[in-house]
Each structure stands twice: as structure tokens, then as C-alpha cells.
Amino acid sequence: MRRSPVWLLSGWLVIGSATSASAQLLAAKDGPIVYGHHHVTTNNIDAQKKFFVDTLGGTLIKVGADGREIVKFPNVLVFFRPGQAPILGSRGSTVNHIGFSVPNIRRAVNRLKAGGYEMITRTEAAAGREIQDDVALPAQPGGSWIAFVLGPDQLKVELVEVQKQTQPIALHHVHFFTPQHADMRAWYVKLFGAKERETPAFLVGDLPGVALNFTKSDTPTVGTPGRAIDHIGFEVKNLEAFTKKLEADGIKLSTPLRKVPALDISIAFVTDPWGTSIELTEGLNRFN
Q: How far, in Å, CA of 148 to CA of 162, rounded?
């Protein structure tokens, strides 16, 4: 999906199991490509800030020339883009949900329930998993306790308990759903250098600080633009060279490489073959 120059000039805010819970957006340190940001479409930014900051525990910061508010977590930034009501949720799109890890899932679930958010663990956890008070027990010995919640604008979020984690919350994974999940993982592995890993339930591609999970969907999914998760983002070291390689490999940029002076970063967009909008950035790591 091509974005107009006017939208880019006025909307620079688009820049809106983890292998290392302490990793930040440090491409030079952790690898040439790391996960960078989620960008959320919303018609109620205050409600999203209440969800991500007051309830989940992210840190609200201001960036850029106009002091744009974004939310910072270990390993990821969350940006907001005003949308039109009603916003279509993340379920049914290629990015079904995003995942955070917490050291105590019961405490996190209790906080979400106290905030009035809908727990959807019983309908979203894999069939056969035992559910106790909105938390899914491990599927096998040594597995993780998980829970699912529906945030504002029907944004689906998974929580995964990582007891040894020192931060109260951190990015854990991005979960893709598509009937062609194996092909989708292969595309992300080739493009971003993710390392393949298998689990009993889904396929994984690991990057520093994030797991890219891929589940086979029994029904067709649609691309992300306009959904609750409008696009995802990767921070790339030497973005100009990376985009030239993409084009040499026949991958068309949906938005060409350009500078965003308000943030002093470079950005470009690509769209995966399943319709997922992906922003590529260089310099965004300064804000995490």
C-alpha cells in the first residue's frame, strides 16, 4: 500500500519468546536488524494510553519536534495513528496479536481485569489447554503460563509468564496468522535473517529481543493497513544499503527510502506477500 508524501510529512508518527528480555533497539549491538515498533490505529488515543501505560506498564515519552507522545517498553516502541471509527481489530489480519512477557502473569491479569478489560484466554488459547481464572496453564511440562486480553479498538494482546525476567514487562513476540504460515516464515527468515525454531504449536523466526511466531490459519486473513495493528516495524543498520538490496532482489518498496527531519531518522516501507505493512527505520533506536 503506497502512502502519499503528504501523509508521511504530517504523519511521521507512523514509526507507531524473546531471546533476550533486556535487549533494546540497538541494531549496532544486537544485530543488523532488530524489531523496532508496533503502530496502532485508534480513534481514542487516551484509551490506548490508559491500556499501554497505566495498565500494562509502558512508559509514556515525547519525541520529535512537536513532542509526539509514544509508549516505550523494553525492546519495542508503540506509536499511535488516529483512525476512523469503528476500527477493525487485529484478529482476522495477518498480525493476529502482539505479545509481552511478564514475571508474574497472575498479577498482570488481575490488573487488566481491575481495569475493566475483557480477558479472552478461553476462546484464544489453543484447544485442549486448561484454563484457570483466565490464565492458560502450560501445554507441556516446562511450558509457559499465558493469557489473552482484548484492548481498545479490539487489539489482541498475549501475556507470557517469564519468571526470571527482571523487567515488569517486555516485548515477547509478534504472532502472524495465515493459511501459508510456512511460506510466510520463510519470507521473514530470508528478508530479515531470523533464525528458524520449531514449537509443537507454531513456527518461529527469532530476532534479537523478539520471536516472530507463525500459525496456520484455517480461514483467509487480510493485510494490516487500517486494522488495529496498522503496521509493524524493524530497525535496520545501514537502511540505504538494505533497501537497495531489496530492490535488487525484486522486492518493491511500497514507500521509498526518505528522511524524516522531525525525528532525524530514515524510513521506508515494504509489504509482505500476505499484505502486512512493514516499516523499516534507521535511527529510531535513539528513543529507546
A: 15
Give the E-state strand segments of 154-240 in sequence order.
Answer: 155-161, 170-178, 195-198, 203-207, 210-216, 229-236
- Residue 159's closest CA among 187, 190, 124? 124
CA angle 276, 156, 153 (to 5 degrees): 90
Amino acid making up residue 115: G
25 has a pLDDT exceeding 50: no
Tell me which H or E stretch contains 15.
none
- On whether the CB atoms of residues 15 and 79 are closer than 8 A, the answer is yes
Range with lowest mean pLDDT among 5-9, 136-140, 190-194: 5-9
- H helix count then E strand count, the chain: 7, 18
Confirm if 55 and 229 have CB atoms less than 8 A apart: no
For 42, the 3-state DSSP assignment is: strand
Which triple of cell numbers denotes residue 282? 534507521
Q: Report the C-alpha gap between 177 and 211 in whole angstroms.
A: 14
Distances (CA, A) of 153 to 56, 84, 240, 257: 16, 11, 35, 30
Read off the pLDDT of each residue in 174-190 and give the average, rounded to a whole number.
Answer: 98
What is the residue whose three cell numbers read 525454531?
197
Whether the model clears a pTM of 0.85, i.e. scores above it, the answer is: yes
Distance of CA 63 to the CA centre of its chain: 20
DSSP code string of 56-123: T--EEEEETTTTEEEEEETTEEEEEEE-PSSPB-STTBSEEEEEEEES-HHHHHHHHHHTTPEE-HHH
pLDDT digits (tens, 9 = 90+) for 72-110: 999 999 999 998 777 899 999 999 999 999 999 999 999
